[in-house]
Amino acid sequence: MIGAGAGGAAAAYCLAKAGLEVDVYEASGGVGGLARSVGLWGQSVGVGPQHFFSADPRVNELWLEVVGGDFEMVEPVVGSHPARAAAAGSGLGGLLRGVWPRHGRRAAVPEFAHPRHGFGEVYSRMCEFVEKRGGRVHLDTPVAQLVVDDDRVVGVRLNNADVYEHDHVVSSMPPAVLAGRLPAVPAAVAAAGAGLTLGNTVVVYLLTSGQSVFRDTWINVRDPSLRTGRITNFDNWVPAAKRGEPETVVALEYWCSGEHEFWRWEDEQYVALARNELAATGLVDIDEILDGVALRVPKSLPVYRESLRRHLDVLEDHLQGLSGLEVIGQHGPIVRNRQGHGILMGMLAAQNIVEDAGHDLWADPAVHAHPATSRITATGLVY
Questions:
Q1: The overall pTM is greater than 0.85
Q2: Which of 129, 296, 333, 356 is least surrounded, with the fewest CB atoms within 10 Å of its CB?
């Protein structure tokens, strides 16, 4: 398994449940991908406002199997800065925390289940299960290349040149990255991979004095004078994640390309920018900001261009011609970059290996939709 995000961890978990020996190769130092949890100032926070919601009974049943009762329901309140004039209330708070979407302050998902110690807990438990079943989870272990023999993927080569043979390889790397990990690909395939652009994320966490510095769960920023695109207030998620700490952790997200000068800033520059921008919104006085930490997340977001589908089609044709390989994650209908969709793709990839199920993982998610629907509530699963 290459990658331990939502899809990778779910695939590894299901394969281990089926009795297979699994090796997970994760390039970063933790599991969960964009849904991982970060421990800061005694609290558990996420990488921006990640949330889990699925109507698929298979996904929800697996999620509850892993999480058990260790979750709470969150009703997100999503603000917009600056607010539309029609949405603004009285005073500065009303101006900054306008209505989003248009007819209410609730998000598109009215409520969702949130593990008490962060979403990373879900994927940590999945990987712990893999290890208990005799598998191995290799952190800080990026895969340099897939080993291919006569159109069959037979293993992986790591950055230190070590080669490990495997009967099957499941990759959750984005196609733009995966294309560069294949040996001797045709020029058209290499060009398609180069044509898929991935953006980087910088998350700056700020420790602020006091509690509930503003009531929104997160704020979508549309102010051209600010560089940040979103502000998350972790005080308004689940109380258990605060672990009794009195201060509030606020996160500001920034996005850029790998070639942009902004990506090469020092941590201190990111923190200084975020401090000034948070103060500029009027949400928090600059004197209330006690500390800051910057987190870089490379190649985290697809960039949508008119050529996207054309490049993906070229990669799909080539990758589907390789046996022994299941491709999940940010691919196919690439807009479905959600935890629930990632978990489902991981489950289907495991079924392809264990049961020879023949799921087309490049198909639109609607193809894999379950005829029944369900939702997770505070009291459990409702069908």
A1: yes
A2: 356
